[in-house]
Write a structure and sequence with these properties.
eight-stranded mixed beta sheet, three-stranded antiparallel beta sheet, 15 strands, alpha/beta, about 425 residues, about 40% helix
Length: about 425
């Protein structure tokens, strides 16, 4: 594949056939195919077999999306409701005014002292252990830097399944392996996390609340059990993703501090706008020192203009967290209730997404498109978990819940009918 001998799109031989050709056990070939698949080099499509991927692994899962025809309501993107994002005019003007009075030059601190103090205050409110503060260009940038600070090629990372598609692509792109951890409405299952750590995972990534795609939120009871699991593996690198900060009312039941090495990542994207490209990172001193040191050899720092703009938004309470959380919650809960009233299983405790298990993703997505709804196929978010589709409630109005629930129920009926024939 590296030399071009196997081109993109080229089918690979069936595993048993290749095993016979090479004179090895079929399980050996299966393990090799699995490793290639985890690293994003090949893809497998059921009875159609395996083939070399057409696209680079970094873009693969984002590319698994339906073509949205004109007139179709797109609830597949995972974007926030732009009507709930604060206006940026005053924040950017304030940042520009600061820059005109005191330009930031090479050698200046990477994080402004006022922003670091406010970020630390907000973290303290949520019970996050004390630690230094760094800034990165979004949550994924932060997670990549934390993983690179501790892990080596071939190390395994335990991840939520289903989970954030971009993270599932990032890990193999870094030369690391993914170990799936099943989730329910209260977050990662403790026994699954324990299994992954016993299986050699050197890191565990957990979404604290507004989990993408299921809407799970870690409860106090689940946090206690996960802390007990982590106590038996103190050398584990724990990464906690709190991208839901600012859009959910659920309290943060943090796991940070349960291990020697840890980091919490808090993005501003969902509450203040994805284009701000700023995430706060805190953690143990060693981890943060490595992250900041490596950052100096790359971008150096996150623009002070962005830092000052975000600080202005925080200080002026530009986002009414309770109102934003209530708006997403009303739409999400209305959809979950409408689906359950029609006999459709649905999950969505927090955030802006609802996860619906389905027996056939391709059929469900196609039938919903025909009904005027574009949803995200679960393949973007899954490793070993059963099929499903993700519905983002951001574009929905209050009156849309019933119509969408009708369409989902109708899309699933053909499969149910076949199951009971």
């Amino acid at each position: 594949m590296r030399t071009g001998g196997l081109a993109a799109g080229r089918p690979l031989p069936p595993m048993r056939e290749l095993a016979q050709q090479l004179g090895v056990n079929a399980n050996t070939v299966a393990a090799a195919y699995r490793s290639l698949r985890e690293r994003g080099v090949i893809e497998t499509a059921g009875r159609r077999g395996s083939r070399v991927r057409e696209r680079p692994p970094g873009a693969a899962r984002e590319a698994i999306r339906p073509e949205v025809p004109e007139g179709c309501t797109d609830i597949s993107t995972g974007n926030p409701d732009t009507a709930l994002l604060p206006p940026l005019h005053a924040a950017l003007a304030s940042a520009a005014d600061n820059a005109s009075r005191s330009a930031v030059l090479y050698g200046a601190p990477a994080v402004s002292e006022p922003l670091a103090a406010e970020a630390r205050r907000l973290l303290d409110e949520d019970g996050v252990p004390d630690g230094p503060v760094a800034l990165t260009s979004g949550a994924l940038d932060a997670i990549e830097r934390v993983l690179a600070a501790h892990l080596r090629t071939g190390d395994a990372v335990a991840v939520e399944d289903p989970g954030w598609g971009s993270l599932l692509d990032l890990i193999p792109a870094l030369g690391l392996k993914t170990l799936p951890v099943a989730v329910d409405d209260e977050g990662p299952l403790p026994e699954e996390a324990a299994r992954a750590l016993r299986g050699g995972a050197r890191a565990l990534v957990v979404t604290a609340r507004a989990q993408n795609p299921t809407g799970a939120a870690v409860t106090p009871a689940r946090a206690r059990r996960l802390r007990e699991v982590l106590a038996g593996h103190p050398g584990t690198l724990l990464i906690e993703d709190d991208h839901g900060h600012g859009i959910v009312e659920e309290p943060l039941n943090t796991l940070t501090g349960s291990t020697d090495c840890w980091a919490l990542v808090r993005s501003t994207a969902k509450a203040y706008g994805p284009d701000l490209r700023l995430a706060v990172v805190t953690g143990d001193a060693v981890t943060l020192d490595r992250v900041r040191g490596r950052q100096l050899l790359g971008p150096g720092w996150v623009s002070r203009l962005l830092q000052d703009a975000v600080l202005y938004l925080w200080q002026t309470r530009a986002v009414d967290v309770a109102a934003v959380a209530r708006s997403y919650g009303q739409r999400r809960n209305a959809l979950v209730r409408a689906l359950e009233a029609r006999g459709v299983e649905a999950h969505g405790r927090s955030g802006m997404n609802v996860w619906v298990p389905v027996p056939d993703e391709t059929g469900a997505v196609a039938r919903l498109l025909h009904s005027g709804w574009a949803v995200a196929p679960g393949a973007r978010f899954r490793l070993a978990s059963p099929p499903g589709v993700r519905l983002t409630v951001s574009p929905l109005r209050a009156e849309d819940a019933g119509r969408l629930a009708d369409a989902v129920a109708a899309a699933l009926r053909p499969a149910a009918a076949r199951r009971y024939d």
